[in-house]
Structures are given as structure tokens and as C-alpha cells.
Protein: Homoserine dehydrogenase
Amino acid sequence: MKQIKGNFVPQALNNTSSLPAVSASRPLRVALFGFGTVGSSVARILLESHPAGLELSHIFNRNVARKRVDWVPDSVVWTENAEDVLQASSSNGGPDVIVELAGGLDPAGNWVRTALANGKSVVTANKKLIAYHGLELEAQAAAQGLHLLYGAAVAGGIPVIPGLEHGLAGDRVDRVEGILNGTCNFILSKMQEGGDYAETLAEAQQLGYAEADPTEDVAGYDARAKLSILTRLALRAQIHPEEIPTRSITDVSAIDFSYARDLNCTVRQIARAGRIDGELAAVVGPMLVPLSSPLAWSRGTENMVVTTGHYGGDVVFSGHGAGGHPTAVAVVSDLVGLAQGSCRIALPSTPAKVSTELEVPHYIRFTVSDRPGIVAAIAGALARENINLNAILQRPGFPLDRLPFVITVEPCRTSALQRALKEIARLPALLEPPLDMQILEK
Amino acid sequence: MKQIKGNFVPQALNNTSSLPAVSASRPLRVALFGFGTVGSSVARILLESHPAGLELSHIFNRNVARKRVDWVPDSVVWTENAEDVLQASSSNGGPDVIVELAGGLDPAGNWVRTALANGKSVVTANKKLIAYHGLELEAQAAAQGLHLLYGAAVAGGIPVIPGLEHGLAGDRVDRVEGILNGTCNFILSKMQEGGDYAETLAEAQQLGYAEADPTEDVAGYDARAKLSILTRLALRAQIHPEEIPTRSITDVSAIDFSYARDLNCTVRQIARAGRIDGELAAVVGPMLVPLSSPLAWSRGTENMVVTTGHYGGDVVFSGHGAGGHPTAVAVVSDLVGLAQGSCRIALPSTPAKVSTELEVPHYIRFTVSDRPGIVAAIAGALARENINLNAILQRPGFPLDRLPFVITVEPCRTSALQRALKEIARLPALLEPPLDMQILEK
Ligand SMILES: NC(=O)c1ccc[n+]([C@@H]2O[C@H](COP(=O)([O-])OP(=O)(O)OC[C@H]3O[C@@H](n4cnc5c(N)ncnc54)[C@H](OP(=O)(O)O)[C@@H]3O)[C@@H](O)[C@H]2O)c1
Ligand SMILES: NC(=O)c1ccc[n+]([C@@H]2O[C@H](COP(=O)([O-])OP(=O)(O)OC[C@H]3O[C@@H](n4cnc5c(N)ncnc54)[C@H](OP(=O)(O)O)[C@@H]3O)[C@@H](O)[C@H]2O)c1
Structure:
């Protein structure tokens, strides 16, 4: 970049890239890496909608023969040799852009590094790769004047990442809360209507909404990867996904929905992060959501993100967070941006440690073998940590030797509650460890 | 732009503007035109948050002396001479960017033209100017390699425009529906809780949510300007705002909320546009919204936009559509984009005529002097136009000589319904013209 001298016009204004960069040059050649759910949807949209300036040129997949479909024109090269595509010079028929849609850290990460090293920009939907290696890969891309776009990595087809980058760059976002995993939301919103966990999980698997091994989703690993990306873009804080305390939804049962209802709440898997007294707090797990909150409106596999800005207040985004076509919309939108010479807005971020110390109200369900004395013992343990009881809920109709009841407590420090629950867990009347969920405030 | 030859790298990929363009050059100098609600909020954010690469340099307003505030540093030039600022060369301390926040078509339009003619990019929140002259001004900006950004012009602080441009460019949006006017939403959501129109309007005026002359808002002119902008960006169709059939909310009364409730609906001012059988339909006015629709969740001055994509399905955006700070967030986000050498995605659009012929269900309220025979007469008029009656609702407790009752009809063509209503209006028992509202489908 030049020095400022005399009649200098700032580079930003000298840049004519809002004119479609493609009009006078050939289209960008696009190579898909991975022809599964999202990859084939991206091919569909590219071939049906013909967005200006983009040409599908290569499809790479292992054992590619079984992937061939008749609706892809003959001009497209099908291959199972990744290196060939990554090394092929774009001046020699090679692709200009690699669209990584295989998933996982390896070999996807190496493809992306090799693509960038060979002068090819990259679009990906791979939240895991971006959560773990996004910073490093963005730096590699920027150092070479290339682009790494991943609008599909969080909330699929909902433009949360573009919204944060282009629409909220001028705010100071203090908090982000979201429903980031469609599988968990499907299961929990079905349970709200009366299903039980195992049945609903089986239904989700049958409908293709949950994997045979649902751990990644129900344990919260998928959501925490996405939350770490949102935390960087919204709160400008770099955190490692594995530092985010994550609780599985598997312990939530039908009875929790009844008690939640009594509290004018429902239960959802929530991913939330915020700056509290200069500390960065982040957490993923099932939580009580007030029925009056937009987060309680989400049904089925829907995703939703609520950002809270210092200047602009709450902004809600919702829609289809997953599925081949919605996710492909975000991928193709990134490609259209590339074709037009667009660029992401660089939102500066700094490394942060995740604080586990929150001060929020909690819902705690106890399952006990008999009632007399137990409430006093629990209340005593809480009182010793200065935790104020808010409500005690007990529905009729349960056997006295296996009695679930609920205590809600006023906002208290996580560490204090954990000490109290540890003491409570030692009470002989307790049949299983207490289930503790945060309650979102209205 | 160069011809493709030999080792050609497409321009789009050769563009390094994702690196903050500001890092090696001086900040962009920003001149505010208009220091009212939004203008002063933009100044606040620029001075409090110091977004990289931006410097507030000028504030222009008529009779500027009374606008001075002590929190703006001395380096900023206050002026009431627009031409001086617009003509000042940026190599000579003049601004690089004009932020137009005065509003209206004149003189705002001329400032924008002069700014562009003098090599200055423009950011504006002026929906009216963009609705009426956006295409022409964009062409002027593009022809000079400059930028015209207006992310704040629709739905204030909610990133609907950035979302459409950067996140949904890859979809084919078939429909857009929204609550685009905070004043109307405040009035109607208060009426839903039992207020009457005149009282609620007075309250809105007292709270600063409605102007002394509320016509622009309640008659739907503000919403139709915004709808015409959304129609261009989402549906890629250029329509003139004055071609959009627009109905005022002033005829909606408490009784309509009771009847709507019986139909599991509420009433909102809705702006909607869609492609139906190749025709472009658009309309603004009070409509019945099912309580299950996200559009019914909006409260107070909130705005909401729902887009329906062929590939990605429904996406919902909601938040603060107005107010100085939220609107300023969108303005500053556009400025951050400019400072980083970013650009908008050009979404190609073509001229379209607005079809007034929709086929949707309707709610029609009649106020009659006596009941016998009137239903038969109305039903007959509808039947002659092949319009099917759906429900007849009549609440008890009204005087027989001034009886409001409601008929809902199945989806029917607008022209047919209008013919029938014209005939019905001639019935002597009718005390006032029927109030007809579209019913949104779930
Ligand atoms: N599906 C969604 O709704 C969604 C939403 C947002 C983001 N994403 C992300 O998008 C990416 C793709 O997801 P998807 O649902 O499309 O997955 P998918 O259906 O499993 O497709 C992945 C494709 O990549 C191929 N592949 C995987 N590993 C490979 C390797 N080592 N070498 C060659 N080919 C390989 C697979 O081939 P085989 O058939 O041989 O396995 C398959 O065709 C993932 O990062 C995912 O997290 C998906
Ligand atoms: N307020 C919102 O919530 C909102 C939301 C979205 C978009 N917008 C748009 O943002 C723009 C500004 O709105 P606003 O609410 O900030 O309006 P405002 O409070 O009335 O401010 C407008 C400012 O511009 C000045 N001005 C107007 N005409 C002028 C002229 N001919 N010459 C010199 N100065 C002039 C006014 O000066 P005086 O004090 O002398 O009148 C006033 O200071 C409008 O286009 C509006 O549609 C506003």
C-alpha cells in the first residue's frame, strides 16, 4: 500500500470492486470438495440459478464413481485425487476457489492450507475447522490477499455471520445467545409436546435429523464449536471451544418440561456467551427459557440467534440452521461475494479466557427416596453458600420412594452453587445427582 | 479491467481489500449532514467506539450554532454551508465520505449527487431518497468507482439489507413480508392489549414514537418506501413506491382485535411483496396475522422481516427498526465497511409492474343498521363473484341499529372482491364502507 502523499485518495475509496468484478473477466472456477448433503445442494443451486461469475468446474470425493449424477454437465471434472485439483494452476484450467464440504479437522484442514498456498480462495461450512483453526487459516489467507469465507459455519442458511460482519460491525455486542443445534432443538421441542427422550431421539434418527451416534449434537460439542465462532465475531474474543463448559441434554426428562411450564418456561439447548464485569463467560447446555423469549418460539430443527448490542439492543435471527439447501444458500452467497470481488469485514478480536463464574438463577431437580427432612437439608446447604431459594415445586402423582421435586434459586455464583450441590449430593435420600439448569432471564 | 490472457488471475481474487485498507493510510474523514436524532447518535458512536479507520471531521446542519454539543472535539468543523463541505477536496482536509441524515428528497438528493460528483462516497439512512432515486444514485456511484450504502434505510438497526446482500445472494427469494413501521406497530400492538386508536396515537406522540402529523406512518407511505427497497434487493424487481397499493391503519378499531382473536389472529401493519405466477404483487396495510406467525410476536416499535427463499426457506430478522442509536449502528457499520475497502454485493434487478391482483383470504367488517336480510344480500353479492364465504362472526352486546359483524372469505382475486364490495356498499343498511383486510396465511 502506498504512502499518503499529495493528492492521495484513501485506498478504500479507490477500490472499484462494487462493480461486478466478473463482468470483464472469465467466471470463477469452483471446485467442490465433498459431494454429500451440502455439496450436492451447492452443485444444484450453481447449476439451476447460474449466479453470475461462477462456474462449477470440479467435484472431488473419495470413491467418486458412486457419486456421479446425471444432472451435472460433462464439463465438470469428477475426481478422487485431491492433490491434482489443489495444485492445478488456475491459469491452466484449475479451480480459482475450493469449497470444502467434507467436514472434520483432517484432511479438510490440509486441503484448505494447500488451497491457500496455491493461490486459491476457500469457502467452507466446516464449523469444527473454523472453531479450532479459523484464526490461523484466516491469517494465511489474508497474508496472501486471498479469502476464507465461512458464512455457512454457524446457523446454516441464516445470515448471522454476514449480519454480524456487515450490519453490526458498528455496535459493541455484549451478549449472544442462541439455539445453534437443530438436532437438540428438534428433540427438546418434541419433548415439550409430550415425547420422551429416547423415543424422540429415535424419531430424529429416522427422519435424518440425528446421526446414528448423536453424541456430537446432544453433548453440545457441535453447538460449542459454533459458539466459539460467534464469540469471536460478536464479542471479539478468541476462545477455544473445549474451554466452554458444556452440558449434555440427555438428562432432561418429561418431568422437567412440566416443572418448566409451571415456571412459564420451556427447555432448550442454549449456547450463550457474554462479557460480564470484563470477564468473558460462555456455556452450552439445556436451560430454562421463558415462554416470552424469542428463543422459546423455535420449533423443530430451527436455529435462532439473539445478539444484544450496547447501542442497537437485541437483534433476532432465525430460520433453517441446517439441511442441504439452506446451508448451500450460505455457501453460494459467499461464492457470489467472491465473484464480485467482495470481502469480509475484518472484526478485530483478542484472546480471552472463558470464565466459568456466572451469576444467574438456576433450576435444580432432585430425585429423592422420601421427602421429610430433605428440603430442610437442601435449603441448609444452599443457605450456607448464601444462595436464596426462590420456589419449591412438587407435582403430585409420583411414588414417595422416587420423588422428583424442583428448587429454583435466585442468581448465584456458579462456584457457590457447585459447592452446595456437592454437599447435597452426599445426602443419603438422593437417588441420583441433582439436575441443574440455568434459567434465562426475560 | 484487463483482458484474460496467459497467467490471468480473476480480478476478484486479486483484490486484497479484505486486509483493512486503513492500516497503511490515513483514516477516512466523515462528514455528517444532519445532526438530529440519528446524526447525533452516529457522532456518539464514532467518538465513543473509535472504529478503526474512521474520523469524524465535519458536521453540517442549518442554523448549526444551536446544534453544538460539548462532547464533540474541537477538531470537528461545524458548518451550515453544505457546498463548502461537498466541494472541499479530500486531499485538502475535505471529507472522504458524506453521511446524509437530514431526510427527505430535497435538498438531500442534491447533496448526494454533488458528493458523488466530487469523488465522495455516501452513506445514508434516507429510505425515501433510496426508494425514489436509489437506482439512479447507485449507477452514479458505480460509474465513478464510489460507494452508496444505505443499510439503515430499512428496519434501522436490524441487518436486513446486509443479510439479503451477503447472506441470501445465493437464494432466490420469492416473498418478503414485514413489519417495517415502528409507529404503526406500537399503535396496533397497544390496541391488541385494549387501547383505542385515538388514545394510543396520542400516547405514541407523547413518547416520541409518532410525529405531530402521523400521516406518513399510519397511511403506510413510510412502509411502502421501505418495501420498494426490499423488493429490489430481495425479489430483484424495481418498482415505484407509489405503485404499491397502500391502506391506512386509521380504520382499524378495537372490535377488529376481538374478531381477529376469535380467528386466532391479531392485526398488524404488514408490508408484503412476492412473485406469484410470474407477476410481482406488493401491498401495504393493516392485515390479520395468525398468532402462530412470527409477525404476531412483534411488540411496541419493533420491526420484523420474514423472507422466503426457494432454497433456504423462511428467514426471520427482528429488532429495533428505529431510534437514534439502533439506526446509527447500521450507519456506522456501513462506514466500517467503507473504511475496510468493502463493497456491497450488486444484486441485479429488473423493472417490474406491481400487480394488484392477489389471491388471498380476506376479513371484511360491515357496520349495519339492522341484521335481517343483510347477510343474505352480502352473501349473494359475494356468490355472484364466485367468492366463498368462510365464517360469519358476530359478537353480542352491540346495538342493533349499529351492528358490526365480520365475514371471512376464502382466497379470492382482488378485482372480484372489489366488484362485490362495490355492490355491497350500495346496500341501504350499510352505515359505513366495509373494512377489508387481507388475512396472512400461516
Ligand atoms: N448438513 C448440514 O445441515 C450442515 C449444516 C451446516 C454445516 N454443515 C457442514 O458442512 C460440511 C458437510 O456436511 P454434509 O452434511 O454435507 O456431510 P456429508 O453429507 O457427510 O458429506 C460429506 C461428503 O464429503 C465426503 N468426504 C468426507 N471425508 C472425505 C475424505 N476424507 N475424502 C474424500 N471425501 C470425503 C463424503 O464422502 P463419503 O460419502 O464417502 O462419506 C461425503 O460425500 C460439514 O463440515 C458440516 O459440518 C452441514
Ligand atoms: N429516527 C429514526 O429512528 C430513523 C430510523 C431509520 C431511518 N431514519 C432516517 O434518517 C434520517 C434522519 O432522521 P432523524 O430521525 O435523525 O431526523 P431529525 O431528528 O429530524 O434530524 C434531521 C436533521 O437534519 C437537519 N436538516 C433537515 N433538513 C435540513 C436542511 N434542508 N438543511 C440543513 N439541515 C437540515 C435537521 O435540522 P433542524 O433541527 O433544523 O430541523 C436535523 O438536525 C431520515 O432520512 C430518516 O428517514 C431515521
About this structure: Chain B touches chain A through 95 residues (CB under 8 Å).
